Amino acid sequence: MRFQVIVGRGAAASKTALLLAEDGERVRMISRTGGGPEHPLVERVAADATDADRLTELAEGADTLFTTAAPAYHTWPEQFPALSAALLTAVRRTGVRYVMLGNLYAYGPVDGPIRPDFPLAATGPKGRSRARVWEEAAASGVRVTEVRAGQFYGAGAYSVFSLMVRRQVLDGTLVLVPQELDVPHSYSAIGDTARTLVAASRDEQAYGRAWHVPTATLSVRELAGRLAELAGAPRPRMEQMTERDLALLALTAPFWAEMHEVLTKPGRPFVVDWSETEKILGVGATPADDVLREMI
Q: Pfam families given for it (predicted)?
């Protein structure tokens, strides 16, 4: 029986664990809280992933180490180096294959569809943090690949859409979002993210490069409108948050102060090219309506 290790316990980690377990593979999930889905083949372990010795012990004998973990959003520049160093140390010591879940911040502002071979040109602290994690892993000589997702949506997703749009649409209240309402944006479903992670882990030609999770590309107004229609909710009332709104929210929680770096430039679509993922790994995008039904 194949044995896989996943560091993380969020929606993408949990869905990945279930996909592997349903294929008859034994899975060990590692997180600070020991959380994760219940399944006979899923073992949940509470451990600190920055402890390289403990992580090595837990990953010994595994085929693949997946990581979906990340520090608190506002602490990436300070805390990502320790986490990624421990993960890479455990991979080197055990010889497991290494599959990382990343995002699109590392590219920085891009004109046109974003391809996975684009340079990692971000200059902001979160974008550079993400870029360094990949650059160090890719230069280390281990078998590694990175699966890069857009903004998450779907059951269990933790994102701007799930936190600031979903509940408000379903409740019929005003939706305030820190992005332009009518500019195309690529969204990655949790299920498609997990399927891409699993497919990349099983394909030898996937290693040594990055892959994009398939996406649905709509404006946030279009996506909210589809959600409302499917749920039988009123047509959404939506407004874009102002700089002042974000500044005031930043006084309540550090998360909001971090939004400025990752907001796209005015009028610029944020579109992902995931054609290679479909062509080579065989993973396509789930229809947006199906994903939205999960959220209802």
A: Epimerase
